[in-house]
Amino acid sequence: MAFDVPPKRLRSLDEDTPAWLEPEDDDIVAEIKSTILSKIVLVAGKDVKHADIHDWYIAAALTLRDRIVYQWLQSDRATQNHGAKRAYYLSLEFLIGRLLTDALTNMSLMKPFRMAIEDLGLDFDELRNVEPDAALGNGGLGRLAACFMESMASLAIPARGYGIRYEHGLFRQIISNGWQEEFPEQWLLSGNPWEFERRDVVFDIQYSGRLDHAEEDDSEGRTLWIPDETIQAIAYDTPIVGWRGHHVNALRLWSARAVDPMRLDTFNSGDHLGAMSEMARAQAISKFLYPSDETPAGRELRLRQEYFFVSASLQDILNRHLHTDGDIRSLPSHAAIQLNDTHPSLAVPELIRLLMDRYHIGWNDALDITTKTISYTNHTLLPEALETWPVELFERMLPRHLDIIYRINAEHLAAAEKHFGADARSQASVSLIDETGGRRVRMGHLAFVGSHRINGVSAMHSELMRETVFADLNSLYPDRITNKTNGITFRRWLHQCNPELTSLLQDACGAAVLDEPERLRMLERLSDDPAFQQRFQTVKRTNKVALAQIIARQFGIVVDPSALFDVQIKRIHEYKRQLLNAIETIALYQAILDDPQGNWTPRVKIFAGKAAASYRQAKLIIKLINDIGNVINNDPRIRDLLKVVFIPNYNVSAAEVIVPASDLSEQISTAGMEASGTGNMKLALNGAITIGTFDGANIEIAEHVGEENIHIFGMRADEVVQRRSMGLDATDIITSSPKLARVIEAIERGAFSPDDASRFIPIAHALRFLDHYLVSADFDDYYRAQRAVDTKWASPEWTHSSILNVARMAWFSSDRTIREYAEDIWGIPVI
């Protein structure tokens, strides 16, 4: 029967050996089975013999959720009783992936649940694959947010994440004839057993309208915002379970609805579609992640989305604070609000608005409370990714916020004038309003000025922030920029996705390595031990065989697990330089054809990633990769020396299979353009050796694993700047590189596009004359580094370096990152 009392606890979680690796009490397995069966009847409303695999998945998830809820309520009570300061993490993306295995691992319930499911005659792996990937993010930004939420729960930091409950997350990618096509990702189609709809948590979100300025005798005057439109935000909570199940936090996602779902008078007049137009306009806000911003309507929708979730979240935070403390002025002592990139930057004017207009706090105090409460994480130096919005759009959609931004900017520029003097360039540089090419609000600048701390996400990135995009702001506010190098949760990216390696690590380092990743250092003494190397290689081969089987089954490409699996898995973008990898593939193909009997290292080039729907050049690069694969994979002269695979619809679940099977990790962004990266950390933790530029967290990985255990190539960031200053024409480089010239010539004559010889002319043209991302400039050194990889692969040194990569990655845990946030930015003690 279903639980109506706290379920039976497992053995003590303080013992060295984790419960999920120990034989389980038969009573616990029986209780789980009984509860699952009751869920089939009482929730699915079916006789057990008629239940399908989806019914069983829902029943299993709800059975686990029952156990989580008790710990969740206990965590929340403990936080309230201690009056603990809370962290609030605002992010437009949360790439949380599947939750069943994640929660089972953290609750130490994997083994009894697996036993219960299999006792019921079901395949556990088939059941867990029923769960859709919650693709509420685009890539690293959203996955980082998910790792941080898990680490906050694991460290028992009272926290809540805030985002949007997109009905359709990032699009489902289909590769049709080599081209990317986008389709809606319907992750909510069959319901979501993990979430709780909070019907009592509803906030009004307002747009447009006009301002009235009222003079008052006893104040500085009040500005009244009289909006034209109101929609509602409804909360949905998902529990995020920390390691060992000791603490559970909530991820609160907002869904949009109209105040009135239908205008009955319009419907009765015969205009049935028009009667629901307001509902459709409201629901569009939480319909899609990242609607295309190529049209004015798309840009307006994006701004509406950002304000929607920021306003709902801040209203919720203030309500909670007043309920527990009662004094709005004490907010900075009880709440720390972290902005994950520029998307939540509207939190600055919105918090000021709420403090002034709703709680009647004066301007100076409202600004002071805001800056002491908010902090901002910058994730990019790319100008196109540092959001700006037209002033005209702000004036029409959020007039009160533009009014506040103008006032912040006036005081800010007055301070800048005192600091810089009458330097027009510096004044223009730090202004919240960009006056060049049409007046636009700079959201990165707004977040910077409205925060007490601003952090980059790797040492190099933070230093470049000080020297480049925020140089003048850093001069004006010299103590605000700090660094917090990203990290990953080892629970998902080692324990869960690579159980065979995890078991080996426990044998070598002790079971406590699951709680103390620093113990991975104990592997160093085994890195040259032949017996351990053999066991390590066996684990890697097992994972490669599993991936090879998926590739054969789904794509009809047979790959040899003995080959080097060379992996580049990330969002498709020109600065991430999948193109560099692709043209090196062509050069290698040509070299093998020139010397078919040469001592070549067999390779499988594996690509995965999505291009933004409107990013034409990135989508053309995907087509090129697939066309290269079509030629190489069908050329009998190559035998099994080289294969190319593009895995479509890359997501968290795909990464959990690819990462453990990877030998070589491609981290080849143009130096100075990758803020950090976290895929590099996941791959290295699982024993892949990195080939990369001196960029982002690659630098810190090299420092920790040793430069001899990583392959660094290419220009450094200062050399990139110098090369670009000379122009983007790469003719001189191509002339001096016969290999590169031959590759570009093959692309230009249609060697990989016989059906359309001119298809890839735009790529060839960019390689020759518009080498902004230094693909041509770095090609020769990249090719050299790849041949050094071949040499190492053929020697025992490869396994030695692979083991040392695992051994020296403990510092890159997101637990370390979150400790630094808590102690240095949020002022929250971590026990």
Describe this structure in words.
Pfam families: Phosphorylase (PF00343). It comes from Nitrobacter winogradskyi (strain ATCC 25391 / DSM 10237 / CIP 104748 / NCIMB 11846 / Nb-255). It is found in: Cytoplasm. Keywords: Allosteric enzyme, Carbohydrate metabolism, Cytoplasm, Glycosyltransferase, Pyridoxal phosphate, Transferase. This protein is α/β, with parallel strands linked by helices. It has three domains: 1-83 and 101-130, no CATH class; 88-99 and 134-486 and 818-826, Glycogen Phosphorylase B (Rossmann fold, 3-Layer(aba) Sandwich); 559-812, Glycogen Phosphorylase B (Rossmann fold). The protein is built from 33 helices and 24 strands. The strands form six sheets. Strands 7-10-11-4-1-12-13-17-18 form a nine-stranded mixed sheet, sandwiched between helices. α26 links the parallel β23 (689-693) and β24 (711-713). α1 (26-42) packs across α4, α3 (100-106) packs across α19 and α22 crosses α29.
How would you describe the shape? Answer: globular
CATH class of the largest domain: Alpha Beta
Relative helix content: 40-55%
Identify the strand order in the major beta sheet.
7-10-11-4-1-12-13-17-18
CATH architecture of the largest domain: 3-Layer(aba) Sandwich
* Structure summary, number of beta strands: 24
Stretches with pLDDT under 50, minimum 5 residues:
1-23
GO molecular function, one term: pyridoxal phosphate binding
Keywords: Allosteric enzyme, Carbohydrate metabolism, Cytoplasm, Glycosyltransferase, Pyridoxal phosphate, Transferase
Pfam families: Phosphorylase (PF00343)
Enzyme class: transferase
